[in-house]
């Protein structure tokens, strides 16, 4: 089986988590800003798409070379045997990016790349007319950084955060990949209680249940590579069957989610059902300020409404203050609160054990971590 150089892409601040996921799957990795490289076969490509919880997409690094003129870009792109990857009727849009490079016009970079590939394919498929572009989708990207060109082929299609279970979203939904990252960062062990006091459409609790049950996040969807003529569909079927056999049905999970809005609780229940974890999470209508517990050693993750997102700043800070009042009396619990409000600690009434910078889409947010002192049962 042919080996490819592969690249997982992810949101800023998530690189170490994706690298750890890949290492746990047995791959050697190399990390750069926003991407983690590893090598693998078509089987590994499908496995990574199926199992990675925090990555956005898996791309094949098709070509790398230096180019300072459009001529060089054209000739070196054309030199690659594109017919090995793209069938005669392939639909192949070319995206582009350029920074700190002589070839800085992105539309021109895209057009030249496309032209070079068309020329190569026309020669390979012995056609003088236009290529039909009526078949499967192969999304390419030419990214140039300091005159170094990298052309990649996206194997994923719709971003991996689209797990396929979210029937309805709330007003400010958290991406599934981000929710999974928060659960990973919290080092939650399944024998401890897990709570999301501001559950919204239920994403954080659902991702926790998927992790707790060892359910592959891509089990309910397919990827662009699934439709390619050089990909054996049996590989996908085998890997999905294997993933189903690895689901842990024996673990008893204690996961609860609360929201002040009754409609959101219904949406969260429906989403959990669609994800196959409807019986693993208890969703209840309750305001965050009214929640308390006598359980110990729990993990709490909250993505409360923040000023610029929903509601206004004053109401948000009042909520943080109420949270601080309740949570600071729960010494065995670890609390993780995500917000873009830089005055959070003041309102909460306590300095975080650790603060981690993340990006929720384009919005810079901080994860305030308050580590609990676990007691042995």
What would you say this structure looks like, in words?
By secondary structure, this protein is an alpha/beta fold. It folds into 2 domains: 3-154, VC0802-like (2-Layer Sandwich), CATH 3.30.2130; 176-219 and 248-370, 3-Layer(aba) Sandwich (Rossmann fold), CATH 3.40.50.150. Helix content is 30%, strand content 22%. The mean pLDDT is 95. Residues 67-154 form the THUMP domain.
Core attributes:
RlmL_1st, seven-stranded mixed β-sheet, transferase, VC0802-like, 10 helices, alpha/beta, 14 strands, 2 domains, single chain, Rossmann fold, Class I SAM-dependent RNA methyltransferase, about 30% helix, SAM-dependent_MTases_sf
Strand and helix map with partners:
Blueprint: E1 4-9, H1 15-24, E2 30-32, E3 35-40, H2 42-51, E4 57-66, H3 70-78, E5 94-99, H4 106-124, E6 139-145, E7 148-154, H5 176-185, E8 194-196, H6 203-212, H7 233-245, E9 255-259, H8 262-274, E10 281-285, E11 299-302, H9 313-327, E12 334-339, H10 344-348, E13 354-360, E14 363-370
Parallel strand pairs: 5-6, 8-9, 8-11, 9-10, 11-12
Antiparallel strand pairs: 1-3, 1-4, 2-3, 4-7, 6-7, 12-14, 13-14
Helix pairs in contact: 2-7, 3-4, 5-6
């Amino acid at each position: 089986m042919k080996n490819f150089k592969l690249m997982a892409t992810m949101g800023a601040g998530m690189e170490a988590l994706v690298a750890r996921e890949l290492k746990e799957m047995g791959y050697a990795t190399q990390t750069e800003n926003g991407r983690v490289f590893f090598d693998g076969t078509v089987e590994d490509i499908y496995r990574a798409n199926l199992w990675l919880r925090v990555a956005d997409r898996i791309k094949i690094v098709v070509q790398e070379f230096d180019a300072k003129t459009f001529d060089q870009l054209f000739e070196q792109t054309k030199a690659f045997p594109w017919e090995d990857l793209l069938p005669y009727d392939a639909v192949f849009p070319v995206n582009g990016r350029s920074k700190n490079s002589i070839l800085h016009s992105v539309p021109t970079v895209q057009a030249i790349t496309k032209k070079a590939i068309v020329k190569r394919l026309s020669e390979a498929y012995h056609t003088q007319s236009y290529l039909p572009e009526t078949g499967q989708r192969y999304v390419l990207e030419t990214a140039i950084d300091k005159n170094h060109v990298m052309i990649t082929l996206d194997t994923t299609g719709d971003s991996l955060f689209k797990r396929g279970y979210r029937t309805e979203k709330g007003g400010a939904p958290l991406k599934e990949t981000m929710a999974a990252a928060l659960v990973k960062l919290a080092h939650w062990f399944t024998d401890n209680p897990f709570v999301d006091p501001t559950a919204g459409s239920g994403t954080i609790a659902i991702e926790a249940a998927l992790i707790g049950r060892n359910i592959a996040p891509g089990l309910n969807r397919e990827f662009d590579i699934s439709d390619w003529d050089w990909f054996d569909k049996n590989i996908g079927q085998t890997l999905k069957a294997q993933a189903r056999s690895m689901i842990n049905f024996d673990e008893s999970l204690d996961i609860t989610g609360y929201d002040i809005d009754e409609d959101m609780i219904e949406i969260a229940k429906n989403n959990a059902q669609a994800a196959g974890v409807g019986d693993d999470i208890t969703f209840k209508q309750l305001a965050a300020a009214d929640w308390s517990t006598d359980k110990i050693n729990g993990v709490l993750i909250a993505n409360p409404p923040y000023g610029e997102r929903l509601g206004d700043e004053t109401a948000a800070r009042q909520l943080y203050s109420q949270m601080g009042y309740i949570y600071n009396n729960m010494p065995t619990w670890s609390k993780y609160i995500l917000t873009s409000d830089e005055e959070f600690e003041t309102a909460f009434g306590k300095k975080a054990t650790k603060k981690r910078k993340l990006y929720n889409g384009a919005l810079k947010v901080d994860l305030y971590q308050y580590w609990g002192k676990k007691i042995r049962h």
